[in-house]
Amino acid sequence: MAEPVVYTAFFILSAITLLAALGVVLSRNLLHSALLLVLSFFSVAGLYILLEAEFLAAIQVLIYVGAISVLYLFALMVTRRVTGEGIRQHNAQVGPALLVTLLLFAGILAPVALCANWHNSSLPPPPDAIPMLGEGFMTHYVLPFELMGVILLVALVGAIILARET
Amino acid sequence: MIIPLSWYLVVGAALFCIGFFGALTRRNAVAILMALELMLNAVNINLVAFSRYVTPHLLTGQFFAIFVVGIAAAEAALGLAIIIAIYRVRETANADEINLMKW
Prior knowledge:
The complex is a heterodimer.
Chain A: H1 3-26, H2 30-50, H3 54-78, H4 94-115, H5 129-138, H6 142-163
Chain B: H1 5-25, H2 29-53, H3 60-90
């Protein structure tokens, strides 16, 4: 791809991700937060495509946008009060939380990200990434894969039991 | 590899910090879980960026990221089920007001 296209795509996708995330945590309307979360998930999928992880981008859209976001919207619909939305959405720790967050970003994460010497490899990514992923799940990573199935089963049964009508 | 690795890491760090702020300051329990999802997405961006730039032939970061997505789905389902169950009894979803066990 031409260089300006890659730079433009990266900046647009990063800007959408971060601005939508800011909207999620700062919005007074919870449904706006949920929909901005969906926008953030879509732009993260775009970042995955820039990083040449196409299967993960498809998984991100299918699972995060398709299932988890719908789950959040259902939960928001069920747990809303019928009267009045004039409740404050942020608790009393906004000041200290902002301080700790800025310290975390500017003091630890950003310096490490920008100043460390990452040993970049010049190898190209494999052209058959998806078959490699499938083989890896069945050979090298089979134990976490099977455990993931058990975890999802436990979550499914647990969620039904917790949220059913008593 | 036109874009340096550190730029992707900074985006992941910023997204993580935004989610961190949201998890600390929001009152509604569902909003806290949404900020938690932002943090998990940031971790996934980091994993995939490292996989692409440091060991692109192993795809290790993508495997890890797929497991993180699965765990996030299970945790969202269970967390929201708990919040719905609490809402049925206490008529509130604000984390401040669910304080029976607070000393």
